[in-house]
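Look over this entry.
=====
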Amino acid sequence: MTHGFSLTDDPWLLLPPATGEPAQERSLRTALLEAHEFGDLVVEIPTQKPAVFRQVLLPLIVAALGRPADEREWMNWYSTGQWSQEQRLRLQEYLDAHRGLFDLFDPVQPFGQVAGLSTTKGATKNAGLIVATAATGNNVPLFASRTERDTFPLTPAQAAHWLLHTQCWDTAGIKTGAMGDSQAKAGKTTGNHTGPLGQMGVTLLAGRTLFETLLLNIPVGAPPTSTDLPQWKRRDPSGPRPASTPQWRTRAPEGLLDLWTWQSRRIRLLPEATEEGLRVTRVLVAAGDRMPHTPETEPHTMWRVEPTGGRNSVKDKDRTTLPRRPLRLQPGKAAWRGLDALLAPERQSREAGEKTSGFARSKVLDQAGGLVPELGEAYPLRVELFGVAYGSQSAVIDDVMFDALPLPLAALGADSDVRSALLEVAEQAEHLATAVNHLSADLRRALGAEPIPWDKGQRPGELVLHTLDPLVRRLLTGIRGVEDLERIEVGQRAWEQLAWRRSGEIADRLLQAVPVGAFAGRSTSQGEGKPERTHRVPLAEASFLRRRAEILHRADALRSNSANPDGE
C-alpha cells in the first residue's frame, strides 16, 4: 500500500495566529503565503525550530524569490508587512512546481530521505532512534519515561519534525552501513560527525510575526548560483552531489541553500497503517555528507576569533584550523552572560589580540544592527539561542540548550550607550559571582578547609548569577527604545541597587553558616621565606564588602550620600 503525506498541503506546522489565539497545525503552503498572520512556530523541543527554519522555510523562500540584494531592498520587502502580490504568486508557483518533491512518503523520492535505503540484512530500528528525547542505544535521557524496547509510533507531522532535527543535530559515532555505500565496512560507518548545527551555537532572530521572523533570518546578498541547490533539487542520482543515494562524500557547501539543507544523514522513514492512523514505526539512519568545517558564510552562528599570535593563527602553515571558530553554547550559562559575543560588531570586528580571543556576532544579528535606523530602536527584537551538549565522544545527547533575550536594537550599534551599559551590567554580574566565590573560599580557609575547586561542586557564585538572571532580563526589556543617556543611567543605578541587595543576601547566608570557631581564624603558609597569612571571618567579610563596593560603584555612591547627606 502506498502512503502519502504532502508537507506542502497537509497540516504539520503548529502556528498560532499573531493575535494570540491557540496554535493549530498548518500546511507549508499556508504558513509561507500567510506568514504575516501567524506568530512564533511551536515545536516539541526548542532545537526543532532552527531545523524547520533552515531545512524548509528559509531555503524555500530564497529558492523561490532569491534574497534581498542589500539592506535597502530588505527594507522594501519588510515595509509591506507581508508578501507582495508578485512574491505570493512566485511562491505559489514554486510550491506547485515542486509539490511532488515534498511528499514525506513518496516511494521514489521521499522528502529528505533515500528511497529504498536498506542494509544487507534488511534491518531497521525503532522510530525512537530519531527522537532526541527517547532512550535508544547509549542515548538514555535522564528520567526517560520509555525504554528502547517500547514502540515509538510517530505521526507524519512528528516524523517530519524529527527527520529535520536528525539532519541538523544527530549524534556522532557509528552509523548503520547502507547497501550502496562504498565507504561502509562490516555493516557500519565510523568517524561520523554530529549534525552541522551540533558544532555551533545557533542564533535565530524573532520578530512580531512569522513573516518578520523569516525576513530577519535571511542574510542579504547575491542570488543563489546555479550550483547552489536545496536538497530537494538534488534527487537525480546521476546529477552532481545527489542527496538521493546511499553514497555520501566529504565536501564544502556550494552556497546558502546547500548549507541550510545539508543532508548529514541518509534516512528512510517506514510508515504503516495503524488503528490510530498512519504512523512511522521504524527507521533507518545511515551516514550522510560530511562538512570539513563550518564555512564563514554561515549566517546563524557567533564566532570566536582566534588569537593572532596563537597556534591557530593563519600564519601557521602547519595547521589547517580556521582563525574563526563557531561559538558554542555552554550548558547552564544564561545567554546574557555572553553579551560580549552577541554585541561584538561584525563590521568593526573586535579583533583578537596576540594572546586573547575576540568575537564576531552572527551575520543576521550584524545585519539587524545595520537596520536600526529603519526598524527603530524600540523594535521588539528577540534573540533566540540553541545548542546541544553532547557527551561520550559526541555519541549521546547530554543536554538541549535554549535561551531567548529581548535584545534592544540600539545595543547593536558599535558606539551605542545602551550597548556599553549592557556590557557593563553583564560584567558586573560575573564579578559579583567571583566576589562571592572568594568570600566562600576565605571562609573555608578560616575553618581549615580547602576552597571548592572551580571545576567541581556547586560554588555559591552560580547562585548569585541565578538570582541576578531575572534582574538582567528585566533591564533588557526596560531599556528597549531608551535613547536618553540620563535614563540609561537611572536604569543602571536601579540595577546596581537590586544587585547589591541580592548578592548581599547570599553573602549573609554564607556568613551565618560559619561556626563560632572560625572567627579565631587559621594561618596558612605562603611558601618558603614568606610570612604566614591569617584567614578570619571578619577579614573575609570586609574583603567581600570592599569588592562589592568597587563593582557596584553607583549603588555604593548612593549609599554613601544617603548616610552622609551633607557631604561631611
User: Anything to note?
Assistant: The CA atoms of residues 126 and 149 lie 8 Å apart. Residues 416-568 form a domain with the Topoisomerase I; Chain A, domain 4 fold (CATH 1.10.132.100). The first strand starts at residue 13 and ends at 15.
